[in-house]
Design goal:
This protein is of the alpha/beta class. It folds into 3 domains: 26-85 and 119-202, Rossmann fold (3-Layer(aba) Sandwich), CATH 3.40.50.300; 86-116, no CATH class; 208-307, no CATH class. 41% of the residues lie in helices and 18% in strands. It has 12 helices and 9 strands. It has helices at residues 26-40, 55-65, 81-85, 119-126, 140-143, 145-152, 192-195, 208-218, 223-238, 248-261, 270-287, 293-307; strands at 45-48, 70-74, 86-98, 106-117, 129-133, 154-156, 166-168, 174-179, 199-202. The strands form 3 sheets. Strands 2-5-8-1-9 form a 5-stranded parallel beta sheet, sandwiched between helices. A hairpin with a 7-residue loop joins strand 3 (86-98) and strand 4. Mean pLDDT is 86; it is low at 1-15. The chain binds adenosine-5'-triphosphate (ATP). The site of adenosine-5'-triphosphate (ATP) has 17 residues, from helix 2, helix 8 and helix 10.
């Protein structure tokens, strides 16, 4: 009891759940510091690794460290030079009719095309930090433009009907790429010339202790509950083929959904098991070798739930 007989309530640390900032443990800080040095020296940095390991979050955190405006591009098959460099988007017309002197009627009409800078041109011209997320999803021919930027320091204005054939890259311009190695297969192998010019850092799944520390800091659950969930995920990941399986993203989803539905973090609870199957079932079924992947995945998840232990604080 507190002073005056009143019960003193100890509130858990208030966490802003909408805060998208990453939790920076020592290894993350070190990685960001090294990457910043590479950017400062003029080399583009490329984070590659399995899905959900935090590549995009890291790229954005690194970009923020440069304290320059950040431009974000998502790689996709449809992306083309017009999106990157810019395009004419229409016309403006100006008409002046001069009838001041009654007998004289003068009509002056001009039409101008409206040009809109593409995202890459804007970033290159103004020295922004460009984050090119999942760049291997774009066609290699689209990404070729980066070779001129990185090699010659110019952005060619292909087909832009502009008077200048190119724009010089602003000295403050920097580029951060992310990709998932699974997506290099097939046609994307031809991105090798570009990959050769990047400092590529592999971002793997963190061990369950690091993941638990991130979750307990980001979400309103205890360290031990977070640890129990990341252990469960790590156990399932072991069943998966290399570099696949559920990620930190799945752990975060389970915590968020359990909290929203008032489900306790308890492996023996049937609602918790159901939630885990919904969040993890499909992903686990795709990463294991089995003739009946869905049933096997469900069994593995239930087993991992039964093995789950939340140690007392
Ligand atoms: N250090 C961290 N601190 C807090 N949250 C993190 C951290 N790293 C990753 N996350 C969270 O994990 C989830 C996945 O991160 P992110 O989207 O950056 O991964 P990714 O590797 O880019 O995934 P994908 O390849 O699927 O695009 C996000 O919800 C992100 O907020």
């Amino acid at each position: 009891m507190g002073a005056g007989g009143k019960r003193v309530t100890v509130l858990k640390k208030k966490i802003d759940k909408n805060n998208r900032a990453i939790v920076r443990d020592e290894e993350t800080e070190d990685l960001l510091a090294r990457s910043l040095q590479y950017l400062k020296a003029g080399y583009p940095v490329h984070f590659t690794g399995p899905s959900g390991t935090g590549k995009t979050s890291l790229a954005l955190a690194l970009a923020k460290k440069r304290k320059k405006p950040v431009m974000l591009i998502h790689g996709n098959h449809e992306l083309n030079n017009k999106d990157l460099i810019g395009d004419f988007t229409g016309y403006t017309s100006k008409k002046v009719v001069d009838n001041y002197v009654r007998s004289v009627y003068k009509r002056d009409e001009s039409v101008t095309e409206i040009w809109n800078d593409g995202r890459l041109l804007e970033a290159v011209k103004n020295g922004y930090t460009l984050v090119y997320d999942e760049f291997t999803r774009s066609r290699p021919t689209t990404n070729n433009i980066f070779l001129s930027i990185l090699e010659e320091g110019v952005l060619p204005l292909y087909g832009a009907k502009r008077t200048d054939p190119f724009v010089r890259v602003h000295p403050d311009f920097a580029c951060i790429f992310t990709s998932n190695p699974d997506e290099y297969a097939g046609v994307y192998q031809t991105q090798d010339a570009l990959l050769d010019r990047l400092i590529t850092i592999f971002i793997d799944h963190k061990d369950s202790d690091r993941e638990a520390a991130i979750i307990s800091e980001k979400m309103d659950i205890s360290k031990n509950e977070a640890q129990a969930i990341t252990n469960l995920i790590a156990e399932l990941r072991k069943e998966c083929k290399e570099n696949s399986g559920p990620s930190l993203r799945a752990s975060l989803m389970i915590v968020k959904l359990a909290e929203a539905a008032g489900i306790p973090i308890e492996g023996s609870n049937s609602h918790f098991q159901r939630l885990c199957i919904d969040v993890l079932g499909h992903q686990v079924s795709r990463c294991i070798e089995s003739n009946t992947p869905i049933t096997t995945a469900e069994k593995l998840i239930i087993k991992a739930c039964h093995n789950m232990k939340v140690t007392e604080e």
